[in-house]
Design brief:
260 residues; mainly alpha
């Protein structure tokens, strides 16, 4: 929220990432991390124990190595080595999201450095460090909308009655565009209902969808119904397939002819 407009002005392509940038590492925290990392390499840190220094060096070094591996030049990166040699490396779909994990190392190294600087400084330095820490905390303020709500999801699940005994699987079939079904989160309610009622669903969410699966947008009524018909025909799913109007909490038998 603090750096978003600045970053988008400097690099317009950042706007395409949308809400994901709100989970990133702030510039203030990043600058402190880099400064502390350089300090750890350049000279000894008086008053810092060997164990603390070694921990900070390991975290800083491994983080920088991971960044270098993820860095793309003309669409190529050294992460291809991870794909080729690390077991399970092919399972990582969006490599840049690894920064969410690296945020722990960045924060730890920055905290160690700030603590060291605080202990060895006078009133002026501590005042400056206090201001810097306030900036780092302020840049964590995030006003982007959240798509996940535990209370909303629990209320939604509890509002859905048990499915009829004839239902062997179900698919979301809203009668009108639903405000609950926004972006990728439109598929998540179906997954929750499927888990709660132990009933398979044609809906779901993944960055790697099955070939031919087109149930992306339940709010596009006409296109969505056509996708349900195509998927049902391909895998002969009509026997025991039910529809669920999520907002109404209503189950009904789904007939192919009614969707044409």
């Amino acid at each position: 929220a603090v750096w978003g407009p600045v970053g988008e002005a400097l690099w317009p392509g950042l706007a395409e990432r949308g809400g994901e940038l709100g989970k990133g590492i702030g510039w203030g925290l990043l600058v402190v991390f880099l400064a502390v990392s350089v300090r750890l390499v350049a000279r000894p840190c008086p008053g810092m124990t060997n164990d603390t220094r070694r921990l900070a060096q390991i975290l800083a070094g491994s983080t920088v190595i991971c960044w270098l591996l993820m860095l793309q030049v003309d669409g190529m990166s050294l992460w291809s080595l991870v794909y080729a040699w690390m077991p399970g490396g092919h399972g990582v779909r969006s490599v840049f999201r690894f920064n969410l994990v690296l945020g722990f190392s960045v924060t730890t190294v920055a905290a160690i450095g700030l603590d060291q600087a605080w202990r060895g400084g006078g009133r002026v330095r501590q005042s400056a460090l206090g201001l810097l820490m306030a900036v780092i905390m302020a840049e964590q303020v995030n006003m982007l909308p959240e798509f996940l709500s535990r209370q909303r999801d629990i209320a939604l699940i509890e509002a859905v009655p048990p499915a009829p005994a004839t239902c062997r699987a179900f698919v979301l079939m809203p009668n009108t565009p639903s405000p609950l079904l926004v972006r990728w989160s439109r598929q998540m309610p179906a997954v929750l209902v499927a888990q709660f009622h132990s009933l398979p669903t044609l809906n779901g969410y993944s960055g790697m969808v099955p070939p031919g699966w087109g149930l992306y947008d339940p709010t596009d009524i006409a296109g969505y119904r056509s996708a349900v018909v195509e998927w049902g025909d391909r895998y002969e799913l009509w026997s025991g397939l039910c529809g669920l109007d999520l907002e109404a909490g209503h189950w009904f038998s789904l007939m192919r002819a009614a969707l044409l």
